[in-house]
Amino acid sequence: MIAQQTCQQSTDDSNMVLASAIHEIKNQFNLLLIEIDKLTAQLPDDSVSDQQKQFVNAQTLFVANQLSQILSIYKANTQSITLHIEQHDIADFLDEIAQRHQRNANVYNTTIEVNCDPCLDGYFDHFLIQLIFDTAILNAIREPNVSEILLHATNEDNALVLRIEDNGSGFPEEILQHRIEPATAAPHSMQNGQFGLGLAFANQIARLHRQDQRHGAVTLSNHHLLPGACLSIILP
């Protein structure tokens, strides 16, 4: 019994050290992002330099997003994650995300559009749902066949459905048939199997959103409003 308690205490201590290390790396990387912005701002204003700055910003934003996901997944798996559910204006939420990513999308000649009822609102954790959007968008804009990304939302069957779509080649059939596990399933990309931590993370976060006996979910499809991949976040 004493040995078991000692082992459990050691595991708890290791978990705490790991969480602190991830959090510290994330904080240090955020400081690095600030310095990168300062340095790139000093580059001359010409088309080549501007494209280089946008490329650097796109890559650093991608890494920052991955670090945030790792920390969130860790907290979810250790049941230490806390949801901050608030009411949000969905059109404003989507516009904010689109504007933040458009500069990086320009590097890949990709446009980001928003289609949403201006009166639509919903209740969810802003930071965590934004992470799902960030991951999907960052991966989609890196796909060579994608030139258009659409963010939109609707109310369906008494649930808020948020969608990220693109006009690429869509999800392969084997991915559409693959069940998305809520924890650490093999993640996939919007097209080619490189979604980073994406699908498992997205489903795990969606499932944390609950109302009565219902919980959130993530579904995949092709050819919704655009001819490519469509990731739907369903929140009760």
What's the quick description here?
The protein has 236 residues and is α+β, with helices and mostly antiparallel strands. 51% of the residues lie in helices and 21% in strands.
Strand order of the largest sheet: 2-4-5-9-8
Total separate domains = 2
Outline the biggest β-sheet.
5 strands, mixed
Radius of gyration: 19 Å
Shape field: globular
The rounded distance between the terminal residues' Cα atoms is 43 Å
Secondary-structure arrangement, i.e. CATH architecture of the largest domain: 2-Layer Sandwich
Q: Kindly state the mean pLDDT as a whole number? A: 78
Regions with little confidence, pLDDT below 50 for 5+ residues = 2-11, 182-196
Helices and strands, in N-to-C order?
Answer: HHEHEEHEEHHEEEE
Describe this structure in words.
By secondary structure, this protein is an alpha+beta fold. It folds into 2 domains: 2-77; 85-235, Histidine kinase-like ATPase, C-terminal domain (Heat Shock Protein 90). 51% of the residues lie in helices and 21% in strands. The chain contains 6 helices and 9 strands. A 5-stranded mixed sheet has the order 2-4-5-9-8. The chain has a two-stranded antiparallel sheet with strand order 1-3. A hairpin with a 2-residue loop joins β4 (148-156) and β5. α2 packs across α6 (198-208) and α4 runs antiparallel to α6. The longest helix is centred in the N-terminal third of the chain and has 40 residues, at 2-41.
